[in-house]
Design goal:
- The chain is mainly alpha-helical.
- It folds into two domains: 1-37, no CATH class; 40-90, no CATH class.
- The protein is 77% helix and 0% strand.
- The protein has five helices and no strands.
- It has helices at 2-14, 16-36, 43-51, 56-71, 80-89.
- Helix 1 crosses helix 2.
- The model has no long low-confidence stretch (mean pLDDT 83).
Length: 90
């Protein structure tokens, strides 16, 4: 509620373009960057550093964690997590 009042106050003083504009530009820039750069993660290295040894299920859990963090609620192709693990195990 306090943040809403601060935002409304800032809009009254500076205008909506100055308050919301930088956030909109940052989000647009982030979308362009994400579209151009494929996230790279070595799930085997991450799991090995954390556990010292691992099984496929550990890699699968790390792949799913990475996808959840990278995609932040956006959908992905079914089996992408398994594909990442298959690549990691090669």
């Amino acid at each position: 509620m306090l943040r809403e009042r601060w935002r409304e106050s800032a809009i009254r003083r500076f205008g909506v373009a100055l308050v919301d504009g930088p956030l909109a530009r940052a989000r647009a820039a982030a979308a362009v960057i994400r579209a151009r750069v494929r996230p790279v993660v070595d799930v085997a290295a991450v799991v090995y550093v954390m556990r010292g040894s691992f099984a496929r299920r550990h890699l699968l859990a790390e792949a799913r964690r990475h996808l959840a963090e990278t995609l932040r609620g956006h959908r992905h192709d079914p089996g992408l997590d398994d594909w990442i693990v298959d690549i990691a195990l090669r």
